[in-house]
Amino acid sequence: MAVNAAGDRLPCGHDIDQLWDHLAKGTPDQHVRSCEYCQAALSEIRPLRTATSELAAEPVRPPADLSGTVMAAVRARIAGAPRIALPGPAGNRLFISEPAAAFILRAAGDTVDGVRARSCRLTPYPHDQSISTDLKLSISLRSDMPALAAARAVRTAVRGAARAQLGLTLGRIDIDVVDVHAG
Amino acid sequence: MGGEPIGSTGLEFGVPRPRPGAADCGSPQRPARAALDDATLVVRAREGDVTAFEDLVRRYQVPVYRIAVRILNDPCRAADTAQEAFVMAWRRLPEVKAEQAFAAWLYRIAVTRAVSTLRTVRPYLPLDETAAARDRSPGPEEHALADGLAAALRCALNRLTPEQRACWILREMEGLSYEEVAAILHTTPGAVRGRLHRARPQLAQELTPWR
């Protein structure tokens, strides 16, 4: 390759990096098209560009069971999560793990148009029989949604789901709009 | 390097980040959840929502495996590497500070493991090895007869150092920017350019018969 001692600049002033970019974009300028040094250098690196493109275009499929294997390993590593006591008669206590309860409450939040529930934290009231738990819920809101109306709808949805699916009476519900997403 | 918080790079990958749900290779029973953005899924997974993490695994299993198999050139080791990377990502989710940069963080874990595995299983063979060393593997001429240009490049990539090879794959085949490659490899964009610059003539030399 007719380059200088540094190994990257041709006698015409162009360097190999520039030519490589020209090859990638397929847009050689007037100089490159007519320069003998550039043309000679291009002939040397063109097969590499072609081979790279061919190799990159080869389809690659992971093993069919990869995600299943990963998730089996993940589930085997799950440590004991905090539990919440559900209301019930003494002597027949029913508990639910906080992640499981959060899953149900997030799903309720997701039912509101334009809302994606994110963090869901429960603070149980062990000594108050009328209120089971407080809730802090963070959400991402679609950019065209009014925050106040969305928050009202989310409160209604999660309060209803907590009561219907868990038997929990939610006390304070704090909603934190932490992100906005496009429609 | 995989242990750094995601916020350390500040990068959000545009390429080859899969479209939500696009890389789902099976179990299409939850299409709605698969459409959630990374940040939402990461927050949920960090709080113990296993199904949210499963969505992330399905979304990224193709690029993570593809990068691993291209670095390692070994489907079995690539599958192991991809699995280890995801399990490590699950364990380290509490370290994630910028949820929207999950892809950069995950790729960093996967590439680190792949490069580490490559160093363990096969010390690299420099391109300027003696002719005797070259005789141990098929030359370009043999590839011309057997498999063609892409196969010859695959063979030539095997002769690069693990770091050079990772740079080539991430930049030239996965289409990441110099900055993104540098963040994954825990180096500078200038160092990435340097590695690619040195690798290019070596690889081009291997493909001489195709000029």
Walkthrough of the structure:
- Chain A is of the alpha+beta class.
- Chain A has 2 domains: about 15-55, no CATH class; about 80-180, Alpha-Beta Plaits, CATH 3.30.70.1350.
- Chain A has 6 helices and 5 strands.
- Chain A has helices at about 15-25, 30-35, 35-55, 65-75, 100-110, 145-165; strands at about 85, 95, 115-125, 135-140, 170-180.
- In chain A, the strands form 2 sheets. In chain A, strands 3-4-5 form a 3-stranded mixed beta sheet. Chain A has a two-stranded antiparallel ribbon with strand order 1-2.
- In chain A, helix 6 (about 145-165) links the parallel strand 4 (about 135-140) and strand 5 (about 170-180).
- Chain A is elongated, with a radius of gyration of 30 Å.
- With about 210 residues, chain B is mainly α.
- Chain B has 2 domains: about 1-125, Rna Polymerase Sigma Factor, Chain: A (Orthogonal Bundle); about 125-210, Arc Repressor Mutant, subunit A (Orthogonal Bundle).
- Helices cover about 65% and strands about 0% of the residues of chain B.
- Chain B is elongated.
- In chain B, about 50% of the residues are buried.
- Classes of the chains: A alpha+beta (about 180), B mainly alpha (about 210).
- At the A-B interface, helix 1, helix 3, helix 4, helix 5 and strand 3 of A face helix 2, helix 3, helix 4, helix 8 and helix 9 of B.
